[in-house]
Amino acid sequence: MKIFLGIVPLLTVLGLAQPASSFTAENGLEVLATGSRDFTVPYGGLSGPADFWCAAGDYALRELGLRSGAQIYRTSAAPRRAGDGMRFSLDATAAVRSTGLLLIGPKTAGITAGHARSLCDIPLKR
């Protein structure tokens, strides 16, 4: 019984060891604030660019309280290598040249928070 009682506090502390700036997006990916206008979606298993953008959009809308027309920019180079996450910013000057998504129209490194969040609604086959 003493062993069990010693493990419970340890497990409680480990469970609370998540970074204070962590946010779990609707699709289960974690989003970490890395500055006042920057955030990262770390690799979380089988995920494509749309999954990362979904998490970024969900974070921008629900956690940051941005309006759906606010721009989010990708700051990590495309293409994303297997096992890498993606970095984002609200600052256009930090943007790379490509979103990593197939988009019709001008090729930029940013899309609106609403567009990014709408990618959560598309069932993706893996």
Strand content: 15-25%
Low-confidence segments, given as residue ranges, are 7-18
Task: Average the pLDDT over all residues and give the rounded result.
Answer: 81
What does the largest sheet look like? 6 strands, antiparallel
> Rg, please?
17 Å
Give the % helix: 25-40%
Beginning-to-end CA distance, first to last residue: 45 Å
Summarize the helix and strand pattern as letters.
Answer: HEEEHEEEH
Number of domains: 1
| Category by helix and strand content | alpha+beta
Strand tally is: 6
Q: How are strands sequenced across the largest beta sheet?
A: 1-2-3-5-4-6
Number of helices: 3
Overall geometry comes to: globular
Structure, explained:
By secondary structure, the chain is α+β, with helices and mostly antiparallel strands. Helices cover 28% and strands 17% of the residues. The chain has one domain (21-121). It has helices spanning 2-15, 49-63, 113-118; strands at residues 22-24, 30-33, 38-41, 71-74, 86-89, 110-112. Strands 1-2-3-5-4-6 form a 6-stranded antiparallel beta sheet. Mean pLDDT is 81; it is low at 7-18.
Question: Which features characterize this protein?
Answer:
6 strands, 126 residues, 28% helix, six-stranded antiparallel β-sheet, globular, alpha+beta
